[in-house]
Design goal:
This protein is an alpha+beta fold and 355 residues long. 29% of the residues lie in helices and 28% in strands.
């Protein structure tokens, strides 16, 4: 059931949105790119929330473009290569509260982009199934992005009102796309930066969202057969997760490992440089693996790694600006939260455009 606020949003009108934007008195068109026919919605952010929003709108017959500042799909579901070695250095699994009833998870398994993984743990037990992307975590994002128009290396820096709706200004100062509505599906601090100049209703609530940063370390070490386990859960205060990549479905049989630092350690060392983090965690991981030295190749900081204080609603929609927000941070830290948020934002925007 929708909240009272969302029922009010659905009762709005697309004409109200356009009129309110024109009333801002700024019809400036940024030079450098020819004007184009406005699309129904631009989605900023090609993570699970943004892509689920784009897919939901596309199913309703809406024209949608997705923009992302990155070089390719992934975010915390990304995979990274060093030479011939591939690491899943973000989310350790695809978390669903009730995996047996998730239509998304079932569809991904049937499509062959997700498979269950039951690693042998350091304590000798076998873990309940973790669901992971195959042959890499980013395969899930690639699957979500299929058949969508997604533009990478397109960092939106400004939403500028125009007669048709919104001009999305990219980092080089040109108009990237013109749209009747916008869904902002990026980490909440970045969303605040983008939405503050347009007076988005609900900014104070978004500012209350908080995160826990997470450090991950990529290690080249022994094959899991040599150490007798594939994963370790909270093996020490500094490390919350250490996993061999070789044990996962569809992976190469090599000695690639990924360690996720604990929340406490990551918070204490969040502003440390990458090399010092690698130097600190490498020997700790070597001790867990029972080897003298581990080759630590890369440390990566996920500044917005885990939602600590969520928004508490699937989405926020401003009927005056025809702009909505989405992200796992609206509901919690899981991919399921992100998918639900993106779909909710899409439904609200579709209602506005249809009214």
């Amino acid at each position: 059931m929708r909240s009272r606020r969302n029922r009010h949003v659905a009762a709005g009108s697309s004409r109200l949105c356009a009129h309110a934007r024109a009333a801002q008195g700024d019809d400036t068109t940024v030079p450098g790119r020819p004007s184009e026919e406005p699309i129904d919605c631009v989605v900023i952010g090609a993570g699970p929330a943004g892509l689920s929003a784009a897919r939901a709108l596309t199913r309703q017959g809406r024209s949608v473009v997705v923009l992302d500042k990155g070089r390719g799909p992934g975010g915390r579901l990304s995979s990274r290569r060093t030479g011939e070695t591939r690491f899943d250095h973000g989310c350790k699994e695809l978390t669903f509260r009730e995996p047996e009833s998730s239509s998304d998870l079932r569809e991904w398994i049937e499509a062959g982009v997700v498979a269950p993984w039951c690693p042998t743990l350091k304590d000798g037990s076998t873990a309940a199934p973790y669901h992971v992307g195959t042959p890499a975590m980013n395969q899930v994002i690639k699957h979500l992005a299929r058949d969508l128009e997604v533009r990478f290396n397109a960092r939106a820096v400004e939403l500028r009102s125009c007669e048709a709706g919104w001009e999305i200004i990219q980092h080089q100062g040109e108009v990237e796309v013109v749209a009747r509505s916008v869904i902002v599906a990026i980490p909440s601090p970045q969303a605040v930066d983008l939405l503050t100049p347009i007076g988005f209703e609900g900014l104070d609530r978004i500012k209350d969202v908080s995160f826990t940063g997470i450090w991950s370390v990529l290690i080249e070490g022994p094959h899991p057969d040599e150490v007798g386990f594939e994963a370790a859960v909270e093996p020490c205060p500094e490390i919350s997760w250490l996993a061999a990549q070789a044990g996962k479905p569809g992976r190469a049989s090599d000695g690639a490992w990924v360690a996720l630092a604990s929340h406490a350690w990551s918070t204490e060392h969040l502003e440390d440089d990458k090399s010092s983090v690698a130097d600190a965690l490498g020997p700790i991981c070597a001790g867990i693996l029972g080897i003298e030295q581990a080759t630590t190749t890369i440390a990566h900081r996920w500044r917005f790694g885990l939602t600590r204080t969520p928004l508490g609603a699937p989405t926020l929609v401003d009927p005056i600006t025809c702009v909505a927000v989405a992200g796992d941070w609206c509901l919690g830290p899981t991919i399921e939260d992100a998918l639900q948020s993106g779909t909710a934002a899409a439904h609200e925007i579709d209602d506005l455009l249809s009214a």
